[in-house]
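Example with several molecule types.
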Amino acid sequence: MKDTDIKRLLYAHLFCIFSIILSVFIPSFFLENFSILETHLTWLCICSGFVTAVNLVLYLVVKPNASSKRSSLSHKVTRLLKCCIYFLMSCFSFHVIFVLYGAPLIELVLETFSFAVLLSTFTTIPCLCLLGPNLKAWLRVFSRNGVTSIWENSLQITTISSFVGAWLGAFPIPLDWERPWQVWPISCTLGATFGYVAGLVISPLWIYWNRKQLTYKNS
Amino acid sequence: MQKISVLLLLAWVCFLFYSGIALFTSGFLLTRLELTNHSSCQELPGPGSLPWGSQREPGTCWMASRFSRVVLVLIDALRFDFAQPQHSHVPGEPPVSLPFLGKLGSLQRMLEIQPYHARLYRTQVDPPTTTMQRLKALTTGSLPTFIDAGSNFASHAIVEDNLIKQLTSAGRRVVFMGDDTWKDLFPGAFSQAFFFPSFNVRDLHTVDNGILEHLYPTMDSGEWDVLIAHFLGVDHCGHKHGPHHPEMAKKLSQMDQVIQGLMERLENDTLLVVAGDHGMTMNGDHGGDSELEVSAALFLYSPTALFSSPPPEEQDVIPQVSLVPTLALLLGLPIPFGNIGEVIAELFSVGKDSQPRSSALAQASALHLNAQQVSRFLHTYSTATQDLQAKELQQLQNLFSKASADYQWLLQSSQGAEATLPTVIAELQQFLRRARAMCIESWARFSLVRMAGGAALLAAACFLCLLASQWAVSPGFPFRPLLLIPVAWGLTGAIVYAGLQATTELKLDPVVLGAVAAVSSLLPFLWKAWTGWESKRPLATLLSIPGPVLLLLLIRLAAFFSDSFVVAEARATPFLLGSLILLLIAQLHWKGQLLPPKLLTIPRFGTSVPTGPPRQSGAYALRLGVGLLLCTRLGGLFHRCPEETPACHSSPWLSPLASMVGGRAKNLWYGACVGALVALLAAVRLWLRRYGNLKSPEPPMLFVRWGLPLMALGTAAYWALASGADEAPPRLQALVAGASVVLPRAVAGLAASGLVLLLWKPVTVLVKAGAGAPRTRTVLTPFSGPPTSQADLDYVVPQIYRHMQEEFRGRLERTTSQGPLTVAAYQLGSVYSAAMVTALTLLAFPLLLLHAERISLVFLLLFLQSFLLLHLLAAGIPITTPGPFTVPWQAVSAWALMATQTFYSTGHQPVFPAIHWHAAFVGFPEGHGSSTWLPALLVGANTFASHLLFAVGCPLLLLWPFLCESQGLRKRRQPQGNEGEARVRSEEEEEEQPLMEMRLRDAPHHFNAALLQLGLKYLFVLGVQILACALAASILRRHLMVWKVFAPKFIFEAMGFIVSSVGLLLGIALVMRVDGAVSSWFRQLVLAQQR
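Resulting structure tokens for the full complex:
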């Protein structure tokens, strides 16, 4: 592992963070009355879109993993379709998990689903970009001693921190402060976003810090 | 012998917790008995003549009335300084400008213009300074505590004698407007009432504007004798903005206008009382006992002269309850029976131009009446209960007799005794004040020492649990000395304390005695543990709780310190439980225990810990997890809403079916409930059949086969009767009534007899003596198709081998006619669990009967959920073959969380109005007569059903992984390593059957240690909860919600702890009983073999 790799990782992550910051400020130029809390759904869509776009661009530009051997068009198309199906599946399963965790079943369905989309954007899309639609590889990355590169390592960290952020975001909901951001799912989406950003910041630093201990078998 | 020591050790730890809880409770929850006696007009409180001579005027009682009408304006949280003028403290400096100062100008004007007509008092309020307690005090004249042990817990209605009751029984018309708390306190007492919701603290105007709309028209209509207006705006403004906000100035000015308007309308026979019920802190809160909270304003005014002298320079502080006897006597009513207030004497001087002697005599007679009444109350109270100090009571009695004698003498010696008048007045006042002080001492003061001591004792007990649970599994754990020494010390401490108390002739307080015993037994244990520990291991191993579980535990504990989270615990607990479940699955995956290694394309490298082959597939654990989450969520459909969250709607399914109107829906629901019952029954039978225990001919299994369906039938029939009792034809009414008495009792009796049977013969095994029975057929599971993977090969090849071996042996035995006599015992592997599951089912049925019908669905969910959780946990617990066995912390925490979750999903809330009182009438539709323990037991069993079930079932956490061994082995048969153990079972049995729970028997020492550890861990998890509740209640004792949220939560948690600990002891005792029975069974078998 070279330091240049870590540098590339850092720049890529900074780019992601930048896109999230942009998603907060850019829409206010085009949309009237835009604010994160009040037009929360709009912001959710925009943020998901931005993060997805940046991830795709990074995937095309950086190419962290060696491209697969077969590169026929049909293979690419099926791969893309598979990716889309995986993404949708993850959105739905997140939605189901939120409901199981106590989100309202019938009211606020749209809000819950857009939260699921956002969380999928933070977690599933990087997985899809890095590992492709390959469930076994995913399971491998998220188990002990399963990572094989700094990219996978940072994927692990950002994904887990996104989940933790979303989980922590649920805690202020019962408090009686009566703030606008305590409404479901705003605190959770904000928590997930902060968690994702924190993961993006922490992972290069952590990898840099532990670069001596980290040895990847296949890198 | 060791078993007994384990149980005794656990009981001792429970005792430590109990004494801590008792000590804390005695300092925190002040109790008082509510007497239902009433003062009556005809009967004077003591011997003596009526002050106005023999002939009684109509409309007067103990004293002639001075006012026929009263307007009582109650301004919530009117602190004394709110009514003060904007004086500067230091003369010469400009007055301090605070928003709340000097806004009640009309009071000041009256005080200056008409000093004989008006007076402003600073009243001293007794804590707790919450509105409901204050209203009780302002009408009964007593000292309401948090728990007024009265006859009726379900409603807040005042049962004690009070002003409103005296007014209505005297035929006065009482009109009320304002805070709807009065509606609960005095249901149906008002001739006319305008209630406005007091719930929303942020709403400053609804109540006040509502009152203003009705106040003047009512007053002008003249159809009232007593008019009460309770304004809430000032209090709400304090809660919302605090006293230092401009809004407070506006609110107080509005109140000023109201008072001004009232004073203009008063007639000569009317008294105006403006009172604050309590004060507020700098932040605008109240509830505690700080100086600002306990000072309230009291203003009296009448168009006729009230006083005989202008106000003194330094006004005394008077107790708030003084208003009660004063108002009662001024209105010509008897003083309420339980009043301990002292009349405001200066109001009873007849007029400003009267003679000083007659005026002083009038004061003395009022005080004497008051003293007689207080003395009568003290006498009645002390005969009813013992919580007043006898010595002090005796002194008071002497004081009273002396003052009374002096007064009588004064009355008889008509003239020339003027010199003694002031002494008589002083004596009477002294008696009244000392009586009040004694009552305050025992009823109204937190004892911080006791609270701190209780909390410290709880913390020490928790620490002990943590320490001992680590120590218990280490080999050299000295059971007996550890048990004997603390008990000896505890007894010594208790005896020494009792001796000390006896020598100093103080009353022996059992709570303190228990605490002393607990502390003196705890200290040597801790010392011994400390010295024993240090030499062996570093202290770091003490904190064995894994990080994430510790975090969840801490979050749960921190939640007890926030009233919002306590209110929302019904939602927060499933959330935490779900998090723990997903964490468990993620951990299993992370450790690689879920996926077979072939899926991991990268082989492990380095010296990674060999975690052992996965016992279950990943999808299996995931299914369990999703099933658990689903059950948790479904359980959430049965939540009842706490009253603090008005937006939430309680589940409609909590009401009994009898309250449903629609016939079809009712029938459908009834079907669903019976379906749940049948499903529960079927699931238990299926489970027992799966492990084979159902085949056993022992009495408990016969009971499961025949008794349980009978119980289910009885329950279903009872439900049918209960839900449709009103629709029954009149001819059958008697039958229905009889059946609704008999059926629940029959079910409970059946359950009890089943439990007795289970205790009598807990070993449920099937014994077959004779030649080796063909066990292979049950072992072999069919496998078809070509083997595709290594795992399948692992599975198939030994099976084929065994089959061939079996066939061969069978043929051999047949040829050699009779081989050696072998005894085959089946289902020994699940003998403990079978007893536990049977016991739980038997317990569940009577508990189910105490709940509303539709809760049966929750009970089904409960069993399903714990089954899934046990399986999930078992997937993560490795079986350490020779021992020591441990139950991991996550298992215990998840179990405790699930108990709490089930408490909520059975429709409970930790507040008194949410208790299911109807449970007391199951099987006793006519009530219980005078007995109180039986209804209390029924209601308690209903409320703490989930605590009981989960605590009794706690040993399953230890047993289940061994039970799951058979599954793992069925999937991939691994040769067992330790076949050498000499069991009575025949050799091939050893090879064929997994040992399962018999592994526990093989290491009895480890088994006992594991049970002890399990008990200690469960007690620890519950103990830190009660500790957190106690700390929250004591730290936040000045919080607005302390009596509404924290104190009830503490009480429920404490009761739950007691129920849980008893259940835990019972569960562990049951396991030990089974163990003992299995031992004796083996012994008999050996004897039979030898013969």
